[in-house]
Design brief:
It is a single-pass membrane protein. By secondary structure, the protein is α+β, with helices and mostly antiparallel strands. It has 19 helices and twelve strands. Strands 1-2-8-5-3 form a five-stranded mixed β-sheet, with helices on one face. A three-stranded antiparallel β-sheet has the order 4-12-9. Strands 6-7 form a two-stranded antiparallel sheet. A hairpin with a 2-residue loop joins strand 1 and strand 2. The chain is globular and about 95 Å long. The chain binds protoporphyrin IX containing FE.
Length: about 500
Amino acid sequence: MDLGSLTVAIVVGLLGALYWVLKRVNEWVYESKLGEERRSRLPPGDMGWPLIGNMWSFLRAFKSGRPDSFISSYVKRFNRTGVYKSFMFGSPTIMVTYPEGCKQVLMDDEHFIPGWPKATLKLVGRKSFVGLPHEEHKWIRKLTAAPINGHDALCVYLKFIEEIVVSSLEKLSNAGEIEFLTELRRLTFRIIMHIFMSTASEAIMEELERVYTNLNYGMRAMAINLPGFVYHRALKARRRLVEILQSVVDERRAGKRRNGASKGKDMMDALLEIKDENGRSLTDEEVIDVLIMYLNAGHESSGHITMWTTVLLQEHPEFLEKAKAEQEEIVRNRPPGQKGLTLKEVRQMDYLSKVIDETLRLVNISFVVFREATSDVNVNGYLIPKGWKVQVWFRNVHMDSEVHSEPKEFNPSRWEGPPPKAGTFIPFGGGSRLCPGNDLAKLEIGIFMHYFLLGYKLTRVNPKCPLRYLPHPRPIDNCLARITKVTPQAK
Ligand code: HEM
């Protein structure tokens, strides 16, 4: 071997050794602490590179438009164990990707607590639900969830939602080219603001909605707090949200001092007046963090799913016709003199409900949720060590061809027949942290679709527009489109 070839062989050998060492740093640092016996029970997987772990492959998969390739690379390398070790968002992590395992983690409050990345917690607030201890979470959740999702609440909100949907569609149909997603986010934001802060001025509402967009983009971005980076902008957005909401809290508290307790006008009043059995009320920080969380959770996902339901139906005329026929039937069967929808009618939208479920399954707006193990737990025969993070991969459950056949196809008919097996359809999560806005969200989408299907058409400017998957799946043009009225003659 000449000197040149020898040098090349040495360099290749050294690089190979360096690669081998670097790929094992996270294993040595985090697994060696577990001891041999516990280590041997870890699931298979790959702990990635020092510091960044598997974040690079995760972001590459999502940013290249093939989000499912991230988990499928684990399945290919380590088989369908449904539980894999990894290193994500700065922590050793177990990813759970199969229905029974996801259900087990979601239902088990004794061994799992929320485990969102520190960077996300900084954005949502340490006093929001994801940062609260179990008892406080239960207390504030009880106060806020029933008034949003109960039958009586939905009856009250229905009229308001209907009004705002009817007027928005009318306005949008005269607006020319619009970003359909942006408009729907505005619409759903108005609804959640009405529930939580009904007296907020138009200016506050508009600024809050704008600032939330930046907050959201930072939710699943790399936590790089440097000017120009998405996460930096998101932190700035959070500071602005706190400022705005603090001024509203100050105003309300001053009003209460002047006029005494209000008669529970909206959820913000309820949060300001709540007391636990020891007479403790919420601090400003707690009220603001709960508001930031609800206002955000309460409009982003519903806005996106409403857009996708409309887009997917338009792309599948056979399903659109069926959904439309159902809405026409509802109107035909309406007693004379009745104006507008009733909750009973919304509950009769059986086919539309399947369309919405199929949209939730296919779009995977919340593709993963985060937990942390509070003690050693067994899942599918593997160890989740105490203190490790756990990711519950809803997206994988919904897109696994062994759980849902032809998972990439939009096919509402798959929901005909018996209800899905537990854990196989979990767009709203489960257990004590099940989304408290699930019925409200479906009501909003149902009402929008009712009026849209009966009177409007969406024409996209770029129907083949590429998608962005983080933080939520959306066309990169925010669904640039025209909404036009469909007159009976033009049908
Ligand atoms: C299509 C719409 C929606 C989807 C797909 C969705 C999805 C989810 C999911 C998956 C979770 C569980 C998170 C976890 O387990 O850690 C969740 C929690 C939550 N959602 Fe929703 N959501 C939607 C709409 C709403 C609405 C309209 C509201 C507001 C009323 C809302 C408020 C919340 C809150 C406050 C939590 C935290 C619950 C807790 O930790 O106890 N969501 N949502």
